[in-house]
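User: For my dataset I need records formatted as: sequence, then structure tokens, nothing else. Please produce one.
Assistant:
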Amino acid sequence: MPGFKTNPAPLIRHRMAPVLVLIPVLLAVIFAASAPRLYAGMPRTQKHESRREIDQLEEVWRNAVLQANTAAVDSLLADDYLAITPNGTLQTKEQALAAMRSGQVHFTSLELSDRKVRFYGTTALVTSRAEVSGVTPAGDLSGSFLYTRVYVRDERGAWKVVSFEASRIRSPGERK
């Protein structure tokens, strides 16, 4: 047929179909190969050093609360620190320090175990188990607890606690 022209677009799409199918697969392979580098966060030696720093800070915190050392606790907490206490109330840095200064919160023993530290860039997430004896305005604070503490490295390179949450471990069938 004279003057009949075919549209090349369907032919190109047809020939390109295998390549178009492979593009997402290739992108997935490239991403998977680079993901460990993207999400490793920090070199092994830096991660080891940061882990040691966090472990030391956890010990400083433990000793500070046992000795009611508000200056030490003050230096550990970020200004925007916020805690969720075991009884479910929110507590700011100033409230935590005021409770410690007044003697309303007093710890007689604090044994920590099962600590796990994970890093996400300039953030460290600490989970641990705590065997506690002490008192708070709500009453006796003795028992087993799980807690999460979140540290963030500030602009000066110091780790500061920005968040804390503790939950009592209850025995099966135990009521609140």
